[in-house]
From TrEMBL:
The lineage of its organism: Bacteria, Pseudomonadati, Pseudomonadota, Gammaproteobacteria, Vibrionales. Keywords: Repeat. It comes from Vibrio olivae. This is BglG family transcription antiterminator LicT. Pfam families: CAT_RBD, PRD. Residues 68-173, 174-283 form the PRD domain. Gene3D superfamilies: CAT RNA-binding domain, PRD domain. The gene is licT.
Amino acid sequence: MHVSKVLNNNVLISQDANQREVVVMGRGIGFQMKVGMEIDANKIEKVFTLASSDDDALDARYHELLEEIPLELLAATEQIVELAQQTLSGDLHPSVRISLADHIHFAIERLRTGQVVKNAMLWEIKHLYPAEFDVGLQAIRLLKNASGVTFAEDEAAFIALHLVNAQLNEDMNNTISVTNLIRDIVQMIKYNLALELDEEGVEFRRLVTHLKFFAHRLIHQSTISDDDDSLFRSVRDKYPLAFSCVEKISLYISKKFKHAMTSEEMMFLTIHVERVRRSQKPSAEA
């Protein structure tokens, strides 16, 4: 493995056997190194592929971050990404390394100067994305070991939102819109069916996963439809309580987003609502 670019004493850019650009990290690995020189394998602590984000500005920003961020923090960021990849379902967009490293770098600098930022969406993230939030909690422990900075749960939620964003491959503003929409629909289900939702339950998590991708399609005006309404009618007639709730959700979406839910969308949501309804106990207020 040979040097393609020296970023600093601890970080080099090289190429793997498939000619893909990789980041090579290690204490003092870049000291007195020049382009073309062979990298000392004994000094390598971490190697990962620097996948292109298809955005030259983002790629340039990541090179800047690699130059600016201390080795311990780069290693911690990579640990967080690896943890998320091992723990969460679905793929993370490669650009998550850029957005997460940038965010963490800024968050630590901000906290060191006494700027404490509260996460206004802490409750939603904590309850709607428990797996991502759990990774966020582990992440702030890794960051404490790497930087000595102690973060509150608010930062775990910020990190979790970046991971959700990477799963959806979204703009962060859209991810926030998706989260707010999920929150509103969950609240409508809860109050229309008078349920005390078990947020740790399997069916609730399946519902949230369904809503996450439904909201993603809605924001991008990409719908699913089927010309055969026979299954829709069967579900509608079989689960009248759940369907009545979905009708109210459909009306809300029509008013707020100017989108008429298709019969296919209503059918799938009805099935998920019915599964949640059957798995829950009625609320004390019912």
